[in-house]
Design a protein that fits this description.
Elements (H helix, E strand, L loop, with lengths): L7 H14 L16 H12 L1 H4 L15 H6 L12 H7 L18 H12 L35 H12 L10 H12 L6 H14 L3 H17 L3 H12 L17 H12 L4 H10 L8 H6 L16 H21 L18 H9 L33 E5 L1 H24 L2 H20 L20 E5 L2 E5 L6 E7 L7 E11 L24 E4 L2 E6 L3 E2 L7 H5 L19 E5 L9 E7 L9 E8 L6 E6 L10 H6 L9 H10 L1 H6 L1 H12 L4 E5 L38 H7 L11 H8 L7 H14 L20 H13 L4 H9 L2 H4 L24 E2 L2 H12 L54 H5 L18 H9 L1 H15 L5 H13 L5 H19 L2 H7 L6 H4 L5 H18 L6 E2 L1
Antiparallel strand pairs: 1-13, 2-3, 4-10, 4-12, 5-6, 5-9, 5-11, 7-10, 8-9, 14-15
Length: 1075
């Protein structure tokens, strides 16, 4: 709505005329009429229809009229309290002239008759305004006394949540629904707190205990409390609670812009999970993310948490303007902090004052100034027109600094598992190998034992002449005109040590290995596929590239490629699989950055593993060519074990003693890791070997925040980054909200409150200050949404004027003050919600309330809802028995065709599905490619996380059913579930009942069993008649290979029929719905 500009006297004249023409209005509201609330009934009407032209935005205000401030609306005579006919607002909303009616036709907004009557009744009651509900101080409300409506509650201990909810229901003559069935309640609690369904055994146990407790309210409450304690302590509780936060902070594995390259950030995700698992107070949770790097003596975890500030999208596109992107990064952080913690659409003030909330453009950029000290680059590359000397040599394969190297508990656990698997495989190899090979292996092991014992950390750099060997004739290596021999079982790895000058600029270094010979090579085949010799004229030395299959280093900043398999990503070395044209690449130099400025006296060390043993002939030498080094760099070459191995404990020692010569298990593992033939002979060895190498001794890199000199921040008129005419701003909180306690906190820190520039630490303290009216309400509302599907205010992403008022405002404030007074204890508020009858009630729709409460805002029944995308997948894998419950670690890639990433460039890359049991990890660990989200996630409404998201869409589309039927993960889950049923050797009815119990956590009805039996028999006939079809269905997924070995056509047809039946059960609406 907007009032067109005309002289004020004319407005008065029009008002008088209209008053004379209109019928008489009773100016005083009847005492019997219910009071109209401005916040509940009026604000949304004015905000939606009027504030755009007559609201807080002074630059866009029409006719000088402001309706969001009572005094200004009254001075303008738009509103005359208790005088409906004298109010110009009423005259305009009822006017029929398109030139005078409000809202004007070109706004495409209209008021309903009900809205018009509400405005008139409100004015008749005196047009009282209220401070916007979310900006008003939080006060603990009185818990309603329900005896006014229900005398039976007198003397009973009514749960506070139920008191607020029932008060509204009872006032309308209704009440809560009865309690949910115990099996449904247990499934609801498991999915809400762990994100996984309970087992059938857990369901039966809870059902039995609930039946015993049903006669006593105290016994029932005790049972619920015990179950909540159990679920809070479940090691997967943190994973479930972290999911909504990762949407808010736009956590992703890629940078988003342009090439959407991979970034190192999974330790941040693991930190969030651990924080929720340990019930970290929310104020501490907030401070560590916004300003972990600014804490006194920050710990590694504090720095990892500060990675929040690095989750905005970034670019290294050639031609991008650094100033433009620095502006994008700054505004993105303000939008994210505004929505994640304040529940406000602060982004609306990027170009002008907010049109609906009292949030100005100056407030916007002042908030952005808090983050002006973050070390960052507008373009993460060093181009001629965007010079960044600190990033010299960086290309699309490089990381996004600043980063730190940290220990990942998940990688340590996986490395331990891989080590144990390799040792068992090594034992089997030694026991079963021929005697002559066993003798050579034992001789090598005996020699290696000595130097392993001398090195406590398991790393030994050997001079070239002292490599343990029995046979001196098989291999030879030459460097610096010196030649030494390597035994046939020696490690196929070479160590390069570099010592550069102090304070030297980083160098872009390439390493290439090749064989050089002065005579034509022998005609016989090499001992491995690589190298392939190339004959040339005798007058010139012949060079043949030697393939390097793996590389690792200590303190290098090596290249990072989006195209490589996980083990190479983890090791931070680039070994591209294809070139730009998609052709296979076997020879490519290893590129890395050498930054010796901080370690001038400590050699840089890198180990390269050759693809196979070298069969060097007379006249041949192995050459390591290194390009890009400064002239004063010293280079030495040594033979070295491939991996750095930690000592084993006593139990492991006892488990792997094979023969007397193996006094050090590390020697056994070193032999297994460095013998290429073993890897070729055994797919299992290669699999576990690759996984071991990928773990890098549990070390990984993660982006962190590093404070630097703050850059200048200005108000950008119209958001134009090129317009420098706006005022320079310092860090400051929004004026309309105040500066809760910042000065006091600064004094407590012995800082000069006037001279000291505010920091991100000050911002964090302001956000979680108990006088801040927004944060506690925002968090409490999001917790409510997590357990009911919709918040007490439905617009959890906007607690401003454009958002919805809360359905139960006193309850929201009660939960908010409980959160603050409990020390920001999220688990306390969660328990408060889940122990209520409101949460535990039945989920069946109440038809009798459909007219007065079509959206169930009165909460007369528990709202059922579809599971989130990640939980849909987790549920299927859990039911099937495939789910890998490992916590934390690198993200994984579920099945997709290799060409799924074919449209991604800079660099080009192919999609490589994760191998092994990591394929079945929980959805929270799925690789989040911002521009090419996994189709399963996209089809079930997961966000791309390019922006902060507080509400996921909840669509119901055909793609979802097609995903459940045809996505390889879900087919494999159905196949595994079917195999488990077949192995039971029971009747069809028993197996079908078991399938339903596992999938739905309830017993199947007789009708369901009958219909499933008919379908199962139809599928048997189909697959018995078409063996190729049964083979096709039962060959999908990695797990199929475990069962496919020796199946007869009839057995395979049976498996296929049960797989088809399991697909139906897993595709049921009930399976993916939480009731």
């Amino acid at each position: 709505m907007h009032f067109r500009s005309f002289p004020f006297d004319f407005l008065r004249w029009t008002t008088v005329c209209l008053l004379g023409l209109s019928g008489p209005w009773l100016l005083n509201a009847s005492a019997d009429e219910p009071a109209i609330s401005f916040n509940q009934d009026i604000r949304s009407i004015l905000s939606e229809n009027c504030y755009f032209c007559h609201g807080p935005d002074e630059n866009n205000r029409q006719a000088g009229l402001r309706l969001d401030v009572r005094e200004e609306a009254i001075d303008y005579a738009a509103i005359v309290p208790e005088d409906v006919d004298g109010s110009e607002l009423v005259a305009r909303i009822d006017h029929e002239d398109p030139e005078l009616v409000m809202p004007p036709p070109d706004s495409h907004k209209t008021l309903t008759e009900k809205q018009k009557e509400l405005l008139k009744a409100w004015i008749a009651q005196g047009a009282p305004y209220e401070e916007h509900w979310s900006f008003s101080p939080i006060r603990r409300p009185d818990v309603p006394d329900l005896t006014k409506w229900d005398e039976n509650v007198e003397g009973k201990n009514v749960h506070p949540v139920d008191a607020f909810v029932r008060a509204r229901l009872l006032a309308k003559g209704h009440d809560l629904s009865g309690p949910a069935r115990p099996d449904r309640l247990l499934r609801r609690m498991h999915l809400d707190l762990v994100g996984l369904p309970p087992t059938w055994e857990e369901t039966q146990d809870f059902f039995s205990r609930a039946r015993e407790a049903q006669a006593s309210d105290d016994a029932r409450s005790s049972l619920i409390d015990q179950k909540l304690d159990e679920l809070f302590e479940n090691p997967h509780h943190g994973e479930r609670m972290a999911a909504f936060w990762l949407d808010l902070v736009r956590f992703a594995d890629t940078v988003g812009y342009h090439g959407d390259q991979n970034q190192h950030i999974f330790p941040y995700r693991d930190w969030v999970i651990e924080a929720f698992q340990n019930n970290m107070p929310f104020d501490e949770f907030t401070t560590k993310q916004l300003a972990g790097d600014l804490l006194p003596n920050p710990k590694t975890d504090d720095l990892i948490a500060s990675g929040f500030n690095r989750l905005n999208m970034v670019t290294r596109e050639g031609g991008a303007q650094p100033g433009e992107y620095l502006s994008k990064y700054a505004t993105d952080r303000v939008r994210t902090v505004g929505m994640a913690w304040m529940g406000l659409t602060t982004g609306c003030a990027e170009c002008h004052d907010h049109k609906f909330d009292p949030f100005t453009a100056k407030d916007f950029y002042s908030l952005g100034a808090f983050f002006a000290d973050i070390e960052q680059w507008g373009v993460y590359s060093d181009y001629g027109y965007t010079p960044n000397p600190d990033l010299k040599g960086y290309n699309n394969n490089f990381p996004f600094p600043p980063e730190i190297e940290v220990t990942s508990p998940a990688l340590l656990r996986e490395q331990t598992q891989a080590k144990q698997e390799l040792i068992q495989l090594a034992r089997l190899q030694l026991v079963t190998m021929p005697d002559n090979q066993k003798t050579a292996a034992n001789d090598w092991l005996a020699n290696v034992n000595g130097w392993l014992e001398r090195e406590a950390d398991g790393w030994q750099s050997l001079p070239m002449a002292s490599v343990p060997s029995k046979d001196k004739k098989v291999q030879a290596w030459a460097a610096n005109n010196e030649s030494v021999s390597l035994g046939s079982l020696s490690p196929q790895s070479i160590q390069v040590n570099l010592l550069t000058a102090a304070n030297q600029s980083p160098q872009n270094v390439e390493v290439r290995f090749y064989i050089e010979e002065t005579q034509p090579p022998a005609s016989e085949e090499s001992g491995s596929e690589e190298p392939k010799y190339e004959k040339k004229e005798e007058a010139k030395p012949t060079r043949t590239d030697v393939s390097v299959s793996f590389a690792r280093a200590n303190r290098w900043l090596p290249s990072f490629s989006s195209t490589v398999a996980q083990q190479n990503v983890a090791s931070r070395w680039s070994v591209p699989a294809t070139d730009a044209a998609g052709r296979a690449v076997k020879q490519r130099p290893h590129q890395f950055m050498v930054d010796q400025s901080k370690h001038a006296d400590d050699p840089m060390r890198a180990v390269f593993e050759l693809s196979g043993p070298l069969q060097l002939k007379e006249g041949q030498s192995l050459i390591a060519e290194i390009k890009g080094l400064a002239s004063d760099t010293e280079v030495t070459f040594e033979s070295s074990p491939l991996v750095r191995l930690r000592p084993f404990d006593a139990a492991e020692l006892e488990a792997i003693q094979i023969c007397d010569s193996i006094s050090q298990p590390n020697a056994l593992l070193s032999w297994m890791m460095s013998n290429p033939k073993q890897a070729k002979d055994s797919g299992a060895i290669k699999h576990w070997r690759d996984r071991y190498l990928a773990c890098r001794d549990g070390r990984t890199w993660t982006m962190v925040t590093k404070a630097t000199e703050p850059m200048e921040m200005r108000v950008l008129p119209r958001g134009n980054w090129q317009d420098k005419s706006g005022a320079v701003v310092e860090p400051a909180t929004p004026v309309f909200l105040g500066s809760y306690g910042i000065a006091t906190d600064k004094e407590a820190d012995n800082r000069d409150a006037n001279a000291k520039r505010l920091t991100r630490l000050d911002l964090a303290r302001w956000i979680v200050h108990r006088d801040n009216p927004l944060t506690a309400r925002v968090v409490a509302n999001r917790l409510w949404k997590q357990f009911f599907g919709v918040g007490l205010t439905a617009a959890v992403d906007d607690l401003g004027a454009q958002g919805d008022p809360p359905s139960h405002p006193e309850l929201l404030d009660y939960l908010a003050i409980e959160l603050i007074d409990s020390g920001w204890d999220l688990r306390h508020v969660t328990r408060l919600i889940l122990t209520s009858r409101t949460y535990q009630q039945d989920s069946r729709v109440r038809p009798e309330l459909s007219e007065i409460d079509p959206e169930n805002r009165l909460l007369s029944y528990h709202p059922p809802r579809r599971l989130e995308a990640e939980i849909v997948r987790d549920n299927a894998l859990a039911v099937s028995g495939l789910l890998n419950l490992e916590i934390g670690g690198p993200s994984v890639k579920p099945y997709q065709p290799d060409g799924y990433y074919s449209n991604l460039q800079f660099p080009s890359r192919s999609y490589r599905s994760t191998a092994g049991d990591n394929q079945y990890r929980r959805g929270i660990y799925m690789h989040w490619q911002r521009t090419f989200l996994h189709p399963m996630l996209a089809n079930f409404d997961a966000p791309s996380r390019e922006d902060c998201v507080a509400i996921r869409a909840n669509a119901n589309t055909p793609q979802q059913a097609l995903t459940l039927l045809n996505d390889p993960t879900f087919i494999e889950a159905a196949s595994e579930l079917a195999w488990n049923m077949i192995e039971q050797k029971e009747s069809d009815e028993t197996r079908l009942r078991t399938m339903v119990r596992r999938s739905l956590q309830r017993d199947a009805t007789s009708e369901e069993i009958e219909r499933l039996t008919v379908f199962l028999n139809q599928q048997r006939e189909l697959f018995l008649a078409d063996e190729a079809l049964s083979v096709q269905l039962t060959s999908i997924g990695q797990s199929a290979t475990r069962h496919n070995a020796s199946l007869s056509p009839a057995d395979r047809a049976e498996w296929a029929a049960w797989t088809a039946t399991a697909r139906i059960v897993l595709n049921l609406h009930e399976t993916i719905t939480r009731y």
